């Protein structure tokens, strides 16, 4: 089996009969060839705009991260809108590239994102600018209130396609 992650561009696994994954090859040595590490990646969530929903987001910190410092925010908004940020490598929008420039990168999966159930994906029908925008806005406020190492006064939002 092959896979990627937010810090590794190509990993090959051997899966035995008991479903254990053994890594047999990693082009980037689990990201270390690029100076990256899995400890740079975290997950957060905040209450969504729609009742009884949570918005999931990936967080990628610089490899030189120091929790006592404040870092500018790179808020990466995925296209679609029925798409999602996954724990996968990308040569187009790579959160690690921004993190290595000194940003804390947050990649939210607002209402309409895939992978969180069909109801969550379908909840944007006929109102693409509603719930996703509110989720992203509420996420920014949540980040400001809950992540002391993020300087939201020095923030940039980035995206393409629907994420613009």
Summarize the structure in words.
It contains 3 helices and 8 strands; from the N terminus they run ββββββαβααβ. With 164 residues, it is an alpha/beta fold. The chain has one domain: Alpha/Beta hydrolase fold, catalytic domain (Rossmann fold), CATH 3.40.50.1820. Strands 4-5-7-6-8 form a 5-stranded mixed beta sheet. The longest helix has 16 residues.
Side by side, the strands of the main sheet go 4-5-7-6-8
Number of helices: 3
CATH class: Alpha Beta
Largest sheet report = 5 strands, mixed
The domain tally reads 1
Rounded to an integer, what's the Rg over CA atoms? Answer: 17 Å
CATH homologous superfamily - what is it?
Alpha/Beta hydrolase fold, catalytic domain
The third-level CATH topology is Rossmann fold
Stretches where pLDDT falls below 50 for ≥5 residues? none
Task: List the secondary-structure elements in sequence, H or E.
Answer: EEEEEEHEHHE
- Strand content range: 25-35%
Assign the structural class, choosing from mainly alpha, mainly beta, alpha/beta, alpha+beta, or little secondary structure.
Answer: alpha/beta
* Portion of residues within helices: 10-25%
| Intertermini distance | 34 Å
Q: How many individual β-strands?
A: 8
Shape: globular
* Mean pLDDT across every amino acid position: 84
């Amino acid at each position: 089996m092959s896979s990627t992650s937010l810090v590794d561009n190509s990993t090959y696994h051997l899966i035995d009969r008991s479903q254990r994954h053994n890594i047999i090859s990693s082009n980037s040595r689990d990201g270390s060839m690029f100076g990256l590490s899995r400890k740079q990646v975290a997950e957060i969530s905040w209450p969504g705009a729609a009742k009884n929903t949570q918005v999931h987001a990936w967080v990628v910190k610089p490899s030189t991260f120091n929790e006592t410092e404040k870092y500018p925010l790179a808020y990466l908004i995925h296209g679609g809108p029925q798409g999602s940020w996954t724990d996968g490598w990308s040569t187009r929008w790579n959160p690690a590239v921004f993190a290595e420039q000194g940003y804390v990168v947050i990649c939210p999966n607002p209402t309409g994102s895939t992978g969180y159930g069909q109801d969550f994906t379908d909840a944007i029908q006929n109102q693409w600018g509603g719930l996703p925008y509110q989720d992203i806005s509420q996420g920014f406020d949540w980040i400001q209130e809950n992540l002391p190492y993020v300087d939201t006064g020095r923030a940039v939002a980035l995206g393409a396609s629907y994420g613009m």
